[in-house]
Amino acid sequence: MTFVLQMRGNSFPPNYLKMKALVYHGAGKKAWEEKPKPVIAEPTDAIVKILKTTICGTDLHILKGDVPAVTEGRIIGHEGVGIIEETGSAVATFKKGDHVLISCITSCGKCANCKKAMYSHCENGGWILGNLIDGTQAEYVRIPHADNSLYPIPAGSDEEALVMLSDILPTGFECGVLNGKVSPGDTVAIVGAGPIGMAVLLTAQFYTPSEIIVIDQDPNRLAIAKTFGATQTINSARENAVERVMALTNGKGVDTAIEAVGLPATFEICEAIVADGGRIANIGVHGKSVPLHMETLWSKNITITTRLVDTVSTPMLFKIVQSKKIDAKKLVTHHYKLDNILEAYDTFEHAGKEKALKVMLTA
Ligand SMILES: [Zn+2]
Ligand SMILES: [Zn+2]
Q1: What is the dihedral of CA 104, 109, 111, 117, to 10 degrees?
Q2: Superfamily (CATH H level) for 169-305
Q3: Per-residue model confidence (pLDDT) at position 214
Q4: pTM of the model
């Protein structure tokens, strides 16, 4: 097995089966090319044949070279559903032929952080798929700690809707709604109406806030946000978002401000609109430091939270999606064959022009 780990580039060991995969080749370079089909490396592994996968904003960061942990030759992608192809000898929950949801977070269930349900920082996993190990934008993927990192899919499920549970729904819910302590009657602002902001918008409504204000620069996304339950929308390219939020809240600001972009300017909007006693819940992936305005915030009794999704809410969200209490499929705007993934990337990279939220890739 050491041999597998030492393989580089396109060198194929003898007797290995091949598959197609989306491979990162350094900043700005990617290819849909042949790679060795993954094999069981540990008894707790499963090999999953991908049925459906999608592209995350994080994948675009990786392709730009913003995530230095991702090395050349890595297969990216951390979302999807598939069929178990093979299991290691220690996998107890799954067998060949089972349909499974792949969690973006891999967790052993045994380490100190897993025992605290902080799976995002599992000492033997965490966010490794499509990051530190090969990911899901491929015909097959190896999933470590399969018992704890996969979820069984009942027959007859809408698997396209379930792909939204790999990452964006638990991320929006845990990092935004739960950390932001959205409560009945509260006022909420969501800064950023991409797929994650939309996931916040859908799951914040579990708690019946009185106002959900969505802020973005894309009129199409704001129009979609209205249909998803936003009570107000603000186009921050055309108007002063802070002034508008203060006007809409009688000068008080919002109880929860959720940052779903990852830029200094959008975090500063959250700092300026949070009410006394309120919460700023960060979700965005930040590549730069952001100004922290302690000169105004020190006395306001606010809480600022950060989090990488733990996926502890996935079983609950799974039931909600299955029952259609939220229609997760409406986050999917485009469909492609997995073989046409480069075309799908082109659409997702121009999400504004293409009016794209999530792009669905089907094998
Ligand atoms: Zn993601
Ligand atoms: Zn662990």
Answers
A1: 70
A2: NAD(P)-binding Rossmann-like Domain (3.40.50.720)
A3: 98
A4: 0.94
SS (H, E, C) 263-287: CHHHHHHHHHHEEEEEEEEECCCCC
CA 103–ligand 2 middle distance (angstroms): 14
Ligand showing the shortest atom-to-Cα distance for residue 131: 1
Alpha helices (runs of H) in the chain, residue ranges in sequence order: 2-6, 57-64, 112-115, 146-149, 159-162, 168-171, 195-204, 219-227, 241-248, 264-273, 294-297, 314-322, 341-349, 351-354
pLDDT digits (tens, 9 = 90+) for 272-309: 999 999 999 999 988 889 999 999 999 999 999 999 99
pLDDT of res. 228? 97
Domain ranges for the chain? 2-167+311-362, 169-305
Low-confidence ranges of the chain (pLDDT < 50): 1-7
Are 72 and 48 in contact by the 8 Å Cβ rule? The answer is: no
Please, what's the b/e burial string for 208-226 (b: 16 or more CB within 10 A of its CB; e: otherwise)? ebebbbbbbbbebbbebbe
Per cent of the chain over pLDDT 90 is 93
**Residue type, position 165, single letter:** L
Q: In CATH, what class is 2-167+311-362?
A: alpha beta
290 contact partners, CB below 8 Å, separation of at least 6? 264, 267, 268
78 CA from centroid of ligand 1 (Å): 6
Question: What confidence score (pLDDT) does residue 10 get?
Answer: 53
Closest CA to 104 of 93, 120, 92, 115: 120
Ligand 1 midpoint to CA 165 (Å)? 10
Cα four-point dihedral sign 52, 44, 20, 122 = positive
Residue reference for tokens 């592994």: 45
- Cα(360) to ligand 1 centroid in Å equals 14
